[in-house]
Amino acid sequence: MILAGDIGGTKTVVALFEIESGGLRLVSDATFPSSAHASLEEILARFLEDQSRPRIETACFGVAGPVIGGRVTTTNLPWKLDEDVLARATGARRAKLLNDIEAMAYGMLGLGEDDRAILNRGADSRPTDNAAVICAGTGLGQALLVWDGERHLPIASEGGHVDFAPRTEQEMELLRFLRAELGGHVSYEPLLSGRGLHNIYRFLRTAGGETEPHWLAERLGTEDPGGVIGEVGLAGGDPRCVESLDLFASIYGAQAGNLALTAMALGGLFIGGGIAPKLLPVLQRGGFMRAFTDKGRFSALLERVEVSVALNPRMPLLGAAGYAAQLGPA
Prior knowledge:
Blueprint: E1 2-7, E2 11-20, E3 23-33, H1 40-50, E4 58-63, E5 71-73, E6 80-82, H2 83-90, E7 94-99, H3 100-108, E8 116-120, E9 131-136, E10 140-147, E11 152-156, H4 169-182, H5 194-208, H6 214-222, H7 225-235, H8 239-263, E12 269-272, H9 275-278, H10 280-283, H11 287-293, H12 299-303, E13 307-310, H13 315-327
Parallel strand pairs: 1-4, 4-7, 9-12, 12-13
Antiparallel strand pairs: 1-2, 2-3, 5-6, 8-13, 9-10, 10-11
Helix pairs in contact: 3-13, 5-7, 5-8, 6-7, 7-8, 8-11
């Protein structure tokens, strides 16, 4: 029996899998609002109590944050996780922590055609080339899938926190806007995330000097702003929301192209997270790929890269379970 988890700033998904010939069988799963709980151990105790405390061989969790020496302080939650503590709390023979995007990268290796939408078919892609994963959600995650001669090895990174590099006059103004708000350093994460959509929208409203419609201001004040901007923009209900989505897609494509160049990801660029499937029509309009390939002398190289959006929201969970299955008995 394997216990797997996808630990996010918004929600935590945990599941039990049984190893069977030919793969993994889902036994049970549950989703918990992360901020409503004091710790991951509290969530696991509640989940396992409902399962009559099964005997667990291995537990593996993908978590947002840098995992160092089997420990991590979560990026968007006040939690400190430790592999030894989690093993004792679950009764597992061993527990393993993975960066959440590293776990997602493991899941991407088994991504089927029905589980993805292609933005760029690319050319000459080979399964033995490096690949990469980028994921905008609560934060911005990035990982490399490096081919070692026999298999792909996911390598976690904190590339979402590198300096934002504006490419146009408008993006330079956006940088100045956020520098004033954030007190200096601006990375890609305050732009390519749920709150990033809201930041872009507020910048465009401020730059345009326009009055916000009352109905929109009311929704933004009572609901998740990023979700509202996405919904209204997709429906064409407000021009600034529409413009926000287009600018978001362009910045997302540019950073995805940066990652593809960094990894020499001729084996493919995978887009994960909860935002991309919701904004798929925007990503398919062309702005994402134009920014992705706008790399001067290396534009032709990036045109060869297959770019796809993962539609299955459980890739980090499946990746964590798959990694646990490879570990074998302690």
